Amino acid sequence: MRIVVYPHDLGLGGSQLNAIELGAAVQALGHEVMLFGQPGPLVRRARELGLEFIQAPVPGKRPSPAVVRSLGRLVRERGVDIIHGYEWPPALECLAASKIAGGSAVATVMSMAVAPFIPYSMPLMVGTEQIRRHEEKAGRGMVRLMEPPVDTAANVPDTGAATDEFRERWGLADAAMHVVCVSRLAHELKLEGILAAMDAVADLSRAGDVRLVVVGSGPAEATVRARAERINAGAGRTVVVLTGEIEDPRPAYGIADVVLGMGGSALRGMAFAKPLVVQGEEGFWELLTPESLPTFLWQGWYGAGPGSSGQGSGALTAILARLLDDQGLRIALGSYGRRLVVERFSLEHSAQRQLDLYTEVTGSPQRPPALAPAEATALARYAAYIARRRWLRLRGRAALDDFNSRPVASSPRPAWNPAEVRP
Fold first, then answer.
1. Nearest to 20 by CA among 72, 338, 40
2. Which CATH architecture group holds 161-344?
3. What is the pLDDT of residues 238-259, one digit of tens each?
4. What are the boundaries of each domain within the chain?
5. Closest CA to 157 of 342, 316, 349, 347
6. SS3 string of 172-234?
7. Fold of the domain built from segment(s) 2-149+347-409
8. What is the pTM of this model?
9. How far apart are CA 415 and CA 274, in angstroms?
């Protein structure tokens, strides 16, 4: 098969890194995979993995007619079988390109909720079992689970000299304990937890030598930096270290005593055999243990509201205090996380699952009359979405990240049986 993989952008981030690594893994299974998109830091990673990069036009408003035309030319010229868009703008552009040039359009959404204007007839992969069942119940015809994959060969506990260089670069070459968070500094989904983590580590630093290392950049960076400067000034030493965006964050995971994270970042921390505290919203913090695992296999590496230790920075303080005081517990939970990633979330397993979907889609293409009602409904929903966005923007209330601002995991859900979720 010839496959085009089209992430929503090629800046550093979990969804786009998943797209690239999965594309390379599918190519290793004997298929031709091309990466389509605007240039960004991850182009270098794609080329290292052997993917051909094809530059897209500057999109402007999304979905972009210029992008659709460019994708259509690519499909015709290269005989593309699958056009795979990640997140909703590429998904819609891939679908439109398939209408004018052929090929089968597929979508992956790693956000915490799916845009309702992605047609229910479009084959879809989502990141959690809870979202999969939600979308299936809503009427989607083909929705499959794709938990965030991890390259378990590239992400390993021993990072060697790179870790030593990282320690020297950021003044971490001492006996302090390090709590590490690798995250985009976004207002939606991320900021609340990052600020709570800073407060929790500040509390712990009054009684011991502990630091928080935050790796990443984004629109909330000024807010994060201001809080870090205030904490460091109050402590009279560096308690919070902000590194900004780092193309290869593996050394940061390597120096961690504890990792904080959600989604793909959480899983990559586990690959380094580090104990994981899962970050969410509304004060959610939960330590990964065999007992808490079924919750994460259901709702993903995220949560909302109180965890088993309480809510907010106080809950995180209690979890970190326990971990930092018990080396044996850190080692045991780190080893457990590494085993789990290798057995369930490896890139090889995920690539085969993705290839199975491609085979299913190309083997049973839908006829145009069967697609029309779902696509008409999606168009109406998209028009309503645009109208609502414009109205909220006029009132200064538009969310910065629509579908991460309304996670499925934070909405009421029917009772579920943890035994249904396979550990």
1. 40
2. 3-Layer(aba) Sandwich (3.40)
3. 999 999 999 889 999 999 999 9
4. 2-149+347-409, 161-344
5. 342
6. CCCCCEEEEEECCCCCCCCHHHHHHHHHHHHHHHCCCCEEEEEECCCCCHHHHHHHHHHHHHH
7. Rossmann fold (3.40.50)
8. 0.80
9. 32
